[in-house]
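Researcher: Go.
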Amino acid sequence: MQCPYCFSENHPDAVVCRTCHRDFSLVIALKKKVDELEKLSSNTLNEEYENKIQLLEEKIKLLELNNLNLNPVLEFIQKCASFLLTPLLLLLGIHALITIVLDTNILYLRLFAILLPMLSGYLLFRKGAHHFFLWLLMAILSSFISVMGMSYITSLFDDTPIAPQNLAEWKDFIYFSLSIWFSFLTGMMIGQGAKIRNQGVNPKLHLNLIEKMIVKLIGGGNHNLANFEKIAMKILAILTTLLSIYSGLKGILKF
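Model: Structure:
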C-alpha cells in the first residue's frame, strides 16, 4: 500500500504510514468506494453513480490537500500546546488555587496531577498515530517543568527557595514528577489501545526476545503469543497507574 501523503510503500493492510505516521484509513476507504462505483457505473452507465464517483473523488482530493498542506513542525507545536502546555498550565492554576487561595489539603492537588496528564495522554494517542518514545521524552520534560513551576509559585508567596534544598525535598520532587509522567504514559497506552480497537486491528506490541521466550516456555505457538499481546498493554497500563498513584501519594500518605 502506497501512502497517499509521502508515497512510501507500506504493508498492504496498513492504515498508518510507517514513514510519516499519518493515518490514511479514510483515504483507503474512499478510494475503495470509488473503485466499486466505477465498476458498477461501467456496467449500468447510470448517471447517478457517475455523480457519486465525482463527489467522492473531490472529497479525496480535499482530504489529501488538507493533509499535504499541514506543516509537520506546526502540527507538532500545536500538539505540544494542546496536550502538554495546556495541562501544565491547568496544573499550575490548580496548585495556586489549592495551596495558596484555599490553603487546603495537598492531596487534592496530587489527585489532579494524576488525572489531568492521563487524560491528555489518552486524547493525544486516541486521535492519531505518534512517535511513542518522542512523546514519552516530552512528557518527562513537561512533568519536571510542572513541578518546578509549582515550586516557583510557592516561592512567590512563601519566600521559599525554588529548588529543593535537601535530600527529602529532592525525593519528593522526583516522586511527584514521576507521578505526573506515569499518568501521561498510562493515558498514552490506553489511548493507543482504544484507537487500535476502533480500527478493528489487534494491538501489536514489539515484544523483545526474552518476552517471546517466556511465552514459548508457557505454552508455545503463535496463539499464546497473540494472547500475550492482547493483555500486555492492559497490564502495562494498570502497572503505570499504580506507579503513578504510589509516587504521587507516597510523601503525603507516608507509605
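Model: The longest helix spans residues 221-253.
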